[in-house]
TrEMBL record, chain A:
<comment type="similarity">
    <text>Belongs to the HisA/HisF family.</text>
</comment>
<dbReference type="InterPro" id="IPR011060">
    <property type="entry name" value="RibuloseP-bd_barrel"/>
</dbReference>
<dbReference type="InterPro" id="IPR050064">
    <property type="entry name" value="IGPS_HisA/HisF"/>
</dbReference>
<dbReference type="GO" id="GO:0000105">
    <property type="term" value="P:L-histidine biosynthetic process"/>
</dbReference>
<dbReference type="GO" id="GO:0016829">
    <property type="term" value="F:lyase activity"/>
</dbReference>
<keyword id="KW-0368">Histidine biosynthesis</keyword>
<protein>
    <recommendedName>
        <fullName>Imidazole glycerol phosphate synthase subunit HisF</fullName>
        <ecNumber>4.3.2.10</ecNumber>
    </recommendedName>
</protein>
<comment type="pathway">
    <text>Amino-acid biosynthesis; L-histidine biosynthesis; L-histidine from 5-phospho-alpha-D-ribose 1-diphosphate: step 5/9.</text>
</comment>
<dbReference type="GO" id="GO:0005737">
    <property type="term" value="C:cytoplasm"/>
</dbReference>
TrEMBL record, chain B:
<dbReference type="GO" id="GO:0000107">
    <property type="term" value="F:imidazoleglycerol-phosphate synthase activity"/>
</dbReference>
<keyword id="KW-0315">Glutamine amidotransferase</keyword>
<dbReference type="GO" id="GO:0004359">
    <property type="term" value="F:glutaminase activity"/>
</dbReference>
<keyword id="KW-0456">Lyase</keyword>
<comment type="function">
    <text>IGPS catalyzes the conversion of PRFAR and glutamine to IGP, AICAR and glutamate. The HisH subunit catalyzes the hydrolysis of glutamine to glutamate and ammonia as part of the synthesis of IGP and AICAR. The resulting ammonia molecule is channeled to the active site of HisF.</text>
</comment>
<keyword id="KW-0963">Cytoplasm</keyword>
<dbReference type="GO" id="GO:0000105">
    <property type="term" value="P:L-histidine biosynthetic process"/>
</dbReference>
<keyword id="KW-0028">Amino-acid biosynthesis</keyword>
<keyword id="KW-0368">Histidine biosynthesis</keyword>
Amino acid sequence: MAVAIRVIPCLDVDNGRVVKGVNFVDLVDAGDPVEMARFYDAEGADELTFLDITATSDNRDSAYEMIRRTAEQVFIPLTVGGGVREVADIDALLRAGADKVSINSAAVARPEFIAEAARQFGSQCVVLAVDARRVPADSRIDLASGFEVTTHGGRRGTGIDAIEWMARAEEAGAGEILLTSMDADGTKAGFDTAMLAAARAAVRVPLIASGGAGELDHFCGAVDAGADAVLAASVFHFGKFRIHQVKDSLDAHGLTVRHTPVPAR
Amino acid sequence: MKKVVVFDYGSGNLASAAKALRRAGADVEVTSDLAAAQEADGLVVPGVGAYAACMAGLLAVRGERVIGRRLAGGRPVLGICVGMQILFERGVEHGEITDGVGEWPGTVERLQAPIVPHMGWNTVKSGNGSALFAGMDPESRFYFVHSYGVRAWELEVSDPFTPPVVTWAEHGGDRFVAAVENGPLSATQFHPEKSGDMGAEVLSRWIALL
Protein backbone atom coordinates (compact mmCIF):
# COMPACT_ATOMS: atom_id res chain seq x y z
CA MET A 1 0.00 0.00 0.00
CA ALA A 2 1.43 3.30 -1.04
CA VAL A 3 0.00 6.48 -2.40
CA ALA A 4 0.26 6.52 -6.19
CA ILE A 5 2.47 8.91 -8.14
CA ARG A 6 0.00 11.37 -9.66
CA VAL A 7 0.04 12.17 -13.37
CA ILE A 8 -1.43 15.61 -13.95
CA PRO A 9 -2.21 17.26 -17.28
CA CYS A 10 -2.08 21.05 -17.13
CA LEU A 11 -4.40 23.25 -19.13
CA ASP A 12 -3.49 26.86 -19.73
CA VAL A 13 -6.75 28.70 -19.86
CA ASP A 14 -7.35 32.32 -20.74
CA ASN A 15 -10.74 33.95 -20.84
CA GLY A 16 -12.51 30.63 -20.69
CA ARG A 17 -10.53 29.05 -23.51
CA VAL A 18 -7.59 26.66 -23.49
CA VAL A 19 -4.59 28.36 -25.05
CA LYS A 20 -1.17 27.10 -26.10
CA GLY A 21 -0.60 23.90 -27.92
CA VAL A 22 -3.83 22.02 -28.13
CA ASN A 23 -4.10 19.58 -30.95
CA PHE A 24 -6.72 17.00 -30.21
CA VAL A 25 -8.28 15.29 -33.15
CA ASP A 26 -11.13 13.69 -31.32
CA LEU A 27 -12.71 16.63 -29.54
CA VAL A 28 -15.48 18.67 -31.03
CA ASP A 29 -14.00 21.82 -29.58
CA ALA A 30 -10.37 21.46 -28.52
CA GLY A 31 -10.34 24.87 -26.93
CA ASP A 32 -13.14 24.18 -24.49
CA PRO A 33 -11.64 23.50 -21.05
CA VAL A 34 -14.72 21.61 -19.93
CA GLU A 35 -14.48 19.17 -22.80
CA MET A 36 -10.74 18.75 -22.35
CA ALA A 37 -11.17 18.15 -18.64
CA ARG A 38 -13.73 15.45 -19.34
CA PHE A 39 -11.36 13.93 -21.88
CA TYR A 40 -8.49 13.74 -19.38
CA ASP A 41 -10.76 12.40 -16.65
CA ALA A 42 -11.66 9.53 -19.00
CA GLU A 43 -8.00 9.08 -19.92
CA GLY A 44 -7.13 8.34 -16.30
CA ALA A 45 -5.56 11.62 -15.20
CA ASP A 46 -5.16 11.65 -11.42
CA GLU A 47 -5.84 15.38 -11.13
CA LEU A 48 -6.33 18.35 -13.39
CA THR A 49 -4.63 21.71 -13.17
CA PHE A 50 -5.90 24.91 -14.77
CA LEU A 51 -3.43 27.78 -14.84
CA ASP A 52 -3.46 31.44 -15.82
CA ILE A 53 -7.21 31.45 -15.93
CA THR A 54 -7.67 35.04 -15.02
CA ALA A 55 -5.19 37.21 -16.85
CA THR A 56 -7.38 40.21 -16.15
CA SER A 57 -10.02 40.78 -13.54
CA ASP A 58 -12.57 41.34 -16.31
CA ASN A 59 -12.41 37.66 -17.05
CA ARG A 60 -13.07 36.49 -13.53
CA ASP A 61 -16.72 35.71 -13.95
CA SER A 62 -16.16 33.64 -17.06
CA ALA A 63 -13.39 31.80 -15.20
CA TYR A 64 -15.66 30.92 -12.31
CA GLU A 65 -18.37 29.78 -14.70
CA MET A 66 -15.84 27.64 -16.55
CA ILE A 67 -14.64 26.05 -13.31
CA ARG A 68 -18.20 25.42 -12.25
CA ARG A 69 -19.00 23.68 -15.53
CA THR A 70 -15.77 21.67 -15.36
CA ALA A 71 -16.31 20.57 -11.77
CA GLU A 72 -19.73 19.32 -12.81
CA GLN A 73 -18.17 17.04 -15.39
CA VAL A 74 -15.16 15.51 -13.69
CA PHE A 75 -14.78 13.22 -10.71
CA ILE A 76 -11.13 13.86 -9.93
CA PRO A 77 -9.50 16.76 -8.06
CA LEU A 78 -9.21 20.10 -9.78
CA THR A 79 -6.49 22.66 -9.02
CA VAL A 80 -6.87 26.20 -10.29
CA GLY A 81 -4.24 28.93 -10.35
CA GLY A 82 -3.33 32.21 -11.95
CA GLY A 83 -4.07 35.70 -10.73
CA VAL A 84 -5.03 34.56 -7.23
CA ARG A 85 -4.28 37.62 -5.09
CA GLU A 86 -6.42 37.51 -1.99
CA VAL A 87 -8.40 35.25 0.28
CA ALA A 88 -11.63 36.27 -1.46
CA ASP A 89 -10.25 34.93 -4.78
CA ILE A 90 -9.59 31.56 -3.18
CA ASP A 91 -13.02 31.49 -1.62
CA ALA A 92 -14.66 32.20 -4.97
CA LEU A 93 -12.62 29.52 -6.76
CA LEU A 94 -13.40 26.89 -4.13
CA ARG A 95 -17.07 27.79 -4.27
CA ALA A 96 -16.97 27.42 -8.03
CA GLY A 97 -15.75 23.85 -7.56
CA ALA A 98 -11.95 23.98 -7.37
CA ASP A 99 -10.49 21.55 -4.83
CA LYS A 100 -7.13 23.27 -4.56
CA VAL A 101 -5.92 26.73 -5.47
CA SER A 102 -2.39 27.55 -6.51
CA ILE A 103 -0.85 30.86 -5.59
CA ASN A 104 2.34 32.29 -7.02
CA SER A 105 3.18 35.97 -7.58
CA ALA A 106 0.87 37.23 -4.86
CA ALA A 107 2.71 35.09 -2.31
CA VAL A 108 6.06 36.43 -3.51
CA ALA A 109 4.77 39.97 -3.17
CA ARG A 110 3.18 39.32 0.21
CA PRO A 111 4.33 36.09 1.91
CA GLU A 112 1.71 36.43 4.70
CA PHE A 113 -0.85 35.52 2.04
CA ILE A 114 0.16 31.84 2.35
CA ALA A 115 -0.60 31.74 6.06
CA GLU A 116 -3.85 33.65 5.60
CA ALA A 117 -5.00 31.18 2.96
CA ALA A 118 -3.99 28.13 4.98
CA ARG A 119 -5.67 29.41 8.13
CA GLN A 120 -8.93 30.07 6.32
CA PHE A 121 -9.19 27.05 4.04
CA GLY A 122 -6.69 24.51 5.38
CA SER A 123 -3.25 23.62 4.04
CA GLN A 124 -4.68 20.83 1.93
CA CYS A 125 -6.08 23.27 -0.61
CA VAL A 126 -3.17 25.73 -0.73
CA VAL A 127 -0.67 24.92 -3.46
CA LEU A 128 2.36 27.17 -3.76
CA ALA A 129 3.44 27.45 -7.40
CA VAL A 130 7.12 28.28 -7.74
CA ASP A 131 8.62 29.26 -11.10
CA ALA A 132 12.35 28.90 -10.58
CA ARG A 133 15.49 29.12 -12.69
CA ARG A 134 19.16 28.45 -12.26
CA VAL A 135 21.08 31.61 -11.50
CA PRO A 136 23.27 32.27 -14.55
CA ALA A 137 27.02 32.02 -13.96
CA ASP A 138 27.55 35.66 -14.88
CA SER A 139 24.84 36.92 -12.55
CA ARG A 140 25.62 39.24 -9.69
CA ILE A 141 23.00 37.42 -7.61
CA ASP A 142 24.45 34.93 -5.18
CA LEU A 143 21.95 32.42 -3.79
CA ALA A 144 22.84 29.52 -1.51
CA SER A 145 21.00 26.94 -3.62
CA GLY A 146 21.71 28.50 -7.01
CA PHE A 147 17.96 28.49 -7.83
CA GLU A 148 16.02 31.74 -8.02
CA VAL A 149 12.30 32.42 -7.82
CA THR A 150 10.98 34.23 -10.89
CA THR A 151 7.67 35.90 -11.65
CA HIS A 152 5.90 37.00 -14.80
CA GLY A 153 6.34 33.69 -16.56
CA GLY A 154 10.03 33.47 -15.75
CA ARG A 155 10.88 36.87 -17.19
CA ARG A 156 11.48 38.63 -13.92
CA GLY A 157 13.96 37.55 -11.25
CA THR A 158 13.21 38.19 -7.61
CA GLY A 159 16.56 37.56 -5.94
CA ILE A 160 14.79 35.04 -3.68
CA ASP A 161 16.38 31.65 -3.13
CA ALA A 162 13.83 29.15 -4.48
CA ILE A 163 14.70 26.38 -2.03
CA GLU A 164 14.56 28.68 0.99
CA TRP A 165 11.28 30.08 -0.34
CA MET A 166 9.68 26.64 -0.49
CA ALA A 167 10.77 25.86 3.07
CA ARG A 168 9.30 29.17 4.25
CA ALA A 169 6.06 28.48 2.38
CA GLU A 170 5.74 25.08 4.00
CA GLU A 171 6.28 26.66 7.40
CA ALA A 172 3.55 29.20 6.60
CA GLY A 173 1.09 26.44 5.75
CA ALA A 174 1.36 25.62 2.04
CA GLY A 175 0.14 22.05 1.65
CA GLU A 176 1.80 21.26 -1.65
CA ILE A 177 4.41 22.74 -4.00
CA LEU A 178 4.14 22.94 -7.77
CA LEU A 179 7.72 23.50 -8.87
CA THR A 180 8.28 24.58 -12.46
CA SER A 181 11.75 24.87 -13.90
CA MET A 182 11.69 27.89 -16.18
CA ASP A 183 14.95 26.68 -17.75
CA ALA A 184 13.47 23.30 -18.64
CA ASP A 185 9.94 24.44 -19.46
CA GLY A 186 9.18 23.99 -23.12
CA THR A 187 12.51 22.30 -23.91
CA LYS A 188 11.22 18.69 -23.73
CA ALA A 189 14.75 17.88 -22.49
CA GLY A 190 13.65 16.56 -19.11
CA PHE A 191 12.78 17.94 -15.70
CA ASP A 192 15.40 19.78 -13.67
CA THR A 193 16.11 16.85 -11.39
CA ALA A 194 18.80 18.66 -9.40
CA MET A 195 16.31 21.36 -8.49
CA LEU A 196 13.68 18.76 -7.59
CA ALA A 197 16.15 16.91 -5.37
CA ALA A 198 17.09 20.13 -3.61
CA ALA A 199 13.41 20.93 -3.06
CA ARG A 200 12.70 17.42 -1.80
CA ALA A 201 15.49 17.75 0.75
CA ALA A 202 14.04 21.03 1.99
CA VAL A 203 10.32 20.32 2.30
CA ARG A 204 8.06 17.49 3.44
CA VAL A 205 4.86 18.50 1.71
CA PRO A 206 4.00 16.85 -1.63
CA LEU A 207 6.03 18.10 -4.58
CA ILE A 208 4.75 18.34 -8.16
CA ALA A 209 7.42 18.37 -10.87
CA SER A 210 6.73 20.63 -13.83
CA GLY A 211 8.61 21.79 -16.89
CA GLY A 212 10.62 19.82 -19.40
CA ALA A 213 8.73 16.57 -19.96
CA GLY A 214 9.52 15.23 -23.42
CA GLU A 215 10.19 11.50 -23.06
CA LEU A 216 8.63 8.79 -20.91
CA ASP A 217 11.74 8.24 -18.84
CA HIS A 218 11.79 11.92 -17.91
CA PHE A 219 8.81 11.29 -15.64
CA CYS A 220 10.63 8.46 -13.87
CA GLY A 221 13.62 10.75 -13.40
CA ALA A 222 11.48 13.41 -11.74
CA VAL A 223 10.05 10.87 -9.30
CA ASP A 224 13.48 9.42 -8.57
CA ALA A 225 14.59 12.95 -7.71
CA GLY A 226 11.78 13.19 -5.16
CA ALA A 227 8.60 14.34 -6.91
CA ASP A 228 5.26 12.95 -5.70
CA ALA A 229 3.45 14.01 -8.85
CA VAL A 230 4.38 14.88 -12.42
CA LEU A 231 2.72 17.59 -14.46
CA ALA A 232 2.91 18.18 -18.19
CA ALA A 233 1.00 20.01 -20.87
CA SER A 234 2.11 19.78 -24.47
CA VAL A 235 3.14 16.10 -24.52
CA PHE A 236 -0.43 15.29 -23.56
CA HIS A 237 -2.18 18.00 -25.55
CA PHE A 238 -0.40 17.06 -28.76
CA GLY A 239 -1.02 13.38 -28.15
CA LYS A 240 2.67 12.45 -27.95
CA PHE A 241 1.86 10.44 -24.84
CA ARG A 242 -1.35 9.29 -23.33
CA ILE A 243 -1.79 9.31 -19.58
CA HIS A 244 -1.67 5.54 -19.33
CA GLN A 245 1.63 5.40 -21.21
CA VAL A 246 3.24 7.60 -18.59
CA LYS A 247 1.76 5.44 -15.85
CA ASP A 248 2.92 2.24 -17.53
CA SER A 249 6.39 3.69 -17.77
CA LEU A 250 6.41 4.65 -14.08
CA ASP A 251 5.03 1.22 -13.20
CA ALA A 252 7.76 -0.53 -15.21
CA HIS A 253 10.24 1.58 -13.27
CA GLY A 254 8.90 0.08 -10.04
CA LEU A 255 6.76 3.05 -9.00
CA THR A 256 3.19 2.92 -7.74
CA VAL A 257 0.50 4.32 -10.03
CA ARG A 258 -3.28 4.26 -10.28
CA HIS A 259 -4.26 2.19 -13.30
CA THR A 260 -7.61 2.86 -14.90
CA PRO A 261 -9.34 1.27 -17.90
CA VAL A 262 -7.89 2.72 -21.10
CA PRO A 263 -10.50 4.23 -23.42
CA ALA A 264 -10.26 3.26 -27.10
CA ARG A 265 -9.09 5.98 -29.45
CA MET B 1 -35.25 6.99 -5.76
CA LYS B 2 -33.57 7.51 -2.37
CA LYS B 3 -33.53 11.03 -1.04
CA VAL B 4 -30.12 12.22 0.20
CA VAL B 5 -29.39 15.53 1.87
CA VAL B 6 -25.87 16.95 1.63
CA PHE B 7 -25.64 18.95 4.81
CA ASP B 8 -24.63 22.57 4.22
CA TYR B 9 -22.99 23.88 7.39
CA GLY B 10 -20.37 26.05 5.73
CA SER B 11 -17.75 23.39 5.08
CA GLY B 12 -16.89 21.12 2.24
CA ASN B 13 -17.16 21.00 -1.48
CA LEU B 14 -20.91 20.58 -1.47
CA ALA B 15 -21.38 20.74 -5.21
CA SER B 16 -18.90 17.90 -5.77
CA ALA B 17 -20.58 15.68 -3.22
CA ALA B 18 -24.01 16.46 -4.64
CA LYS B 19 -23.15 15.69 -8.25
CA ALA B 20 -21.33 12.48 -7.32
CA LEU B 21 -24.34 11.29 -5.32
CA ARG B 22 -26.65 12.15 -8.22
CA ARG B 23 -24.39 10.21 -10.56
CA ALA B 24 -24.61 7.31 -8.10
CA GLY B 25 -28.40 7.36 -8.33
CA ALA B 26 -29.74 9.49 -5.48
CA ASP B 27 -32.21 12.33 -5.40
CA VAL B 28 -29.99 14.98 -3.80
CA GLU B 29 -30.70 18.20 -1.97
CA VAL B 30 -27.99 20.50 -0.58
CA THR B 31 -29.41 22.28 2.43
CA SER B 32 -28.87 23.41 6.00
CA ASP B 33 -32.54 22.86 6.77
CA LEU B 34 -32.71 20.67 9.85
CA ALA B 35 -36.10 19.13 9.05
CA ALA B 36 -34.96 18.13 5.58
CA ALA B 37 -31.72 16.74 7.01
CA GLN B 38 -33.69 14.82 9.59
CA GLU B 39 -36.18 13.32 7.16
CA ALA B 40 -34.00 12.34 4.19
CA ASP B 41 -33.27 8.66 3.58
CA GLY B 42 -29.57 9.46 3.92
CA LEU B 43 -27.59 12.39 5.30
CA VAL B 44 -24.11 13.22 4.01
CA VAL B 45 -21.85 15.33 6.20
CA PRO B 46 -18.95 16.69 4.13
CA GLY B 47 -16.07 18.74 5.52
CA VAL B 48 -12.74 20.24 4.53
CA GLY B 49 -10.20 22.42 6.27
CA ALA B 50 -9.54 22.75 9.96
CA TYR B 51 -11.23 20.51 12.54
CA ALA B 52 -12.06 23.40 14.86
CA ALA B 53 -13.62 25.46 12.08
CA CYS B 54 -15.72 22.51 10.87
CA MET B 55 -16.94 21.73 14.38
CA ALA B 56 -17.79 25.37 14.99
CA GLY B 57 -19.77 25.45 11.75
CA LEU B 58 -21.62 22.27 12.64
CA LEU B 59 -22.53 23.47 16.13
CA ALA B 60 -23.66 26.84 14.80
CA VAL B 61 -26.47 25.16 12.87
CA ARG B 62 -27.03 22.47 15.56
CA GLY B 63 -25.92 19.82 13.12
CA GLU B 64 -24.70 17.54 15.92
CA ARG B 65 -28.31 17.17 17.10
CA VAL B 66 -29.49 16.14 13.66
CA ILE B 67 -26.75 13.52 13.47
CA GLY B 68 -27.61 12.24 16.95
CA ARG B 69 -31.33 12.08 16.30
CA ARG B 70 -30.89 10.31 13.00
CA LEU B 71 -28.64 7.69 14.57
CA ALA B 72 -31.04 7.20 17.46
CA GLY B 73 -33.67 6.35 14.86
CA GLY B 74 -31.33 4.13 12.84
CA ARG B 75 -31.29 6.55 9.92
CA PRO B 76 -28.10 6.49 7.82
CA VAL B 77 -25.43 9.19 8.01
CA LEU B 78 -22.23 9.33 5.93
CA GLY B 79 -19.33 11.56 7.00
CA ILE B 80 -16.65 12.45 4.44
CA CYS B 81 -13.07 13.58 5.23
CA VAL B 82 -13.25 16.14 8.06
CA GLY B 83 -16.95 15.18 8.10
CA MET B 84 -15.71 11.78 9.28
CA GLN B 85 -13.14 13.18 11.70
CA ILE B 86 -15.66 15.29 13.62
CA LEU B 87 -17.64 12.11 14.39
CA PHE B 88 -14.83 11.13 16.77
CA GLU B 89 -14.37 12.36 20.30
CA ARG B 90 -11.76 15.01 19.67
CA GLY B 91 -9.35 16.55 17.22
CA VAL B 92 -5.88 17.89 17.97
CA GLU B 93 -4.44 20.46 15.57
CA HIS B 94 -1.39 22.59 16.39
CA GLY B 95 -1.73 21.52 20.02
CA GLU B 96 -5.30 22.80 20.18
CA ILE B 97 -7.87 20.23 21.34
CA THR B 98 -11.39 20.51 19.93
CA ASP B 99 -14.29 18.36 21.07
CA GLY B 100 -15.97 16.46 18.26
CA VAL B 101 -19.46 15.03 18.02
CA GLY B 102 -18.22 11.98 19.90
CA GLU B 103 -20.19 9.24 18.18
CA TRP B 104 -16.98 7.19 18.37
CA PRO B 105 -14.18 7.35 20.92
CA GLY B 106 -10.78 8.30 19.61
CA THR B 107 -8.57 11.18 18.63
CA VAL B 108 -7.90 12.79 15.27
CA GLU B 109 -4.21 13.68 15.24
CA ARG B 110 -1.42 14.59 12.87
CA LEU B 111 -0.21 11.82 10.58
CA GLN B 112 3.30 10.55 11.30
CA ALA B 113 4.66 10.16 7.78
CA PRO B 114 7.63 11.61 5.90
CA ILE B 115 5.36 13.47 3.46
CA VAL B 116 2.28 15.23 4.87
CA PRO B 117 -0.44 16.00 3.74
CA HIS B 118 -1.26 12.50 2.55
CA MET B 119 -2.37 13.61 -0.87
CA GLY B 120 -3.36 11.36 -3.72
CA TRP B 121 -4.77 7.99 -4.66
CA ASN B 122 -4.25 5.16 -2.23
CA THR B 123 -5.49 1.64 -1.65
CA VAL B 124 -7.40 0.55 1.44
CA LYS B 125 -7.48 -2.62 3.48
CA SER B 126 -11.14 -3.45 3.75
CA GLY B 127 -12.49 -4.60 7.10
CA ASN B 128 -14.23 -7.97 7.37
CA GLY B 129 -17.89 -7.80 6.52
CA SER B 130 -17.66 -4.47 4.70
CA ALA B 131 -20.60 -3.63 2.49
CA LEU B 132 -18.87 -0.65 0.90
CA PHE B 133 -15.70 -2.45 -0.23
CA ALA B 134 -16.59 -6.17 -0.37
CA GLY B 135 -15.34 -7.91 -3.48
CA MET B 136 -13.49 -4.90 -4.82
CA ASP B 137 -10.10 -5.30 -6.43
CA PRO B 138 -7.63 -4.63 -3.59
CA GLU B 139 -5.75 -2.38 -6.03
CA SER B 140 -8.75 -0.02 -6.20
CA ARG B 141 -7.63 3.49 -5.31
CA PHE B 142 -9.38 6.38 -3.62
CA TYR B 143 -8.45 10.05 -3.38
CA PHE B 144 -7.18 11.23 0.00
CA VAL B 145 -6.12 14.71 1.01
CA HIS B 146 -5.53 15.19 4.73
CA SER B 147 -2.83 15.87 7.31
CA TYR B 148 -4.71 14.41 10.27
CA GLY B 149 -6.30 11.05 10.87
CA VAL B 150 -7.53 8.48 13.36
CA ARG B 151 -4.49 6.35 14.07
CA ALA B 152 -6.04 4.11 16.72
CA TRP B 153 -9.52 2.58 16.75
CA GLU B 154 -10.70 2.61 20.36
CA LEU B 155 -14.27 1.34 20.31
CA GLU B 156 -14.49 -2.23 21.60
CA VAL B 157 -17.80 -3.96 21.01
CA SER B 158 -18.72 -7.39 22.31
CA ASP B 159 -21.68 -9.73 21.84
CA PRO B 160 -24.54 -9.39 21.23
CA PHE B 161 -23.67 -6.16 19.42
CA THR B 162 -22.19 -6.14 15.94
CA PRO B 163 -18.69 -4.68 15.92
CA PRO B 164 -18.07 -1.80 13.50
CA VAL B 165 -16.27 -2.60 10.25
CA VAL B 166 -13.06 -0.57 10.16
CA THR B 167 -11.16 -0.13 6.89
CA TRP B 168 -7.57 1.07 7.08
CA ALA B 169 -5.11 2.87 4.85
CA GLU B 170 -1.39 3.39 5.15
CA HIS B 171 0.90 6.20 4.10
CA GLY B 172 4.60 6.52 4.72
CA GLY B 173 4.55 3.80 7.36
CA ASP B 174 1.65 5.32 9.30
CA ARG B 175 -1.71 3.55 9.50
CA PHE B 176 -5.03 5.30 9.91
CA VAL B 177 -8.75 4.77 9.53
CA ALA B 178 -9.89 5.04 5.90
CA ALA B 179 -13.54 4.16 6.51
CA VAL B 180 -15.96 3.00 9.19
CA GLU B 181 -19.25 1.15 8.78
CA ASN B 182 -21.12 1.06 12.06
CA GLY B 183 -24.83 0.35 11.63
CA PRO B 184 -26.45 3.53 10.33
CA LEU B 185 -23.25 5.56 10.74
CA SER B 186 -20.67 5.33 7.96
CA ALA B 187 -17.69 7.50 7.15
CA THR B 188 -14.76 7.76 4.78
CA GLN B 189 -11.51 9.65 5.25
CA PHE B 190 -11.03 9.72 1.47
CA HIS B 191 -13.23 11.71 -0.89
CA PRO B 192 -15.52 9.29 -2.75
CA GLU B 193 -16.87 12.23 -4.74
CA LYS B 194 -13.36 12.85 -6.11
CA SER B 195 -12.37 9.20 -6.51
CA GLY B 196 -13.56 8.55 -10.05
CA ASP B 197 -15.43 5.33 -10.79
CA MET B 198 -14.38 3.56 -7.59
CA GLY B 199 -15.64 6.43 -5.49
CA ALA B 200 -18.93 6.31 -7.38
CA GLU B 201 -19.13 2.60 -6.60
CA VAL B 202 -18.75 3.26 -2.86
CA LEU B 203 -21.46 5.92 -2.99
CA SER B 204 -23.79 3.62 -4.97
CA ARG B 205 -23.35 0.89 -2.41
CA TRP B 206 -24.08 3.31 0.43
CA ILE B 207 -27.21 4.56 -1.36
CA ALA B 208 -28.31 0.96 -1.92
CA LEU B 209 -28.24 0.44 1.86
CA LEU B 210 -30.56 3.36 2.57
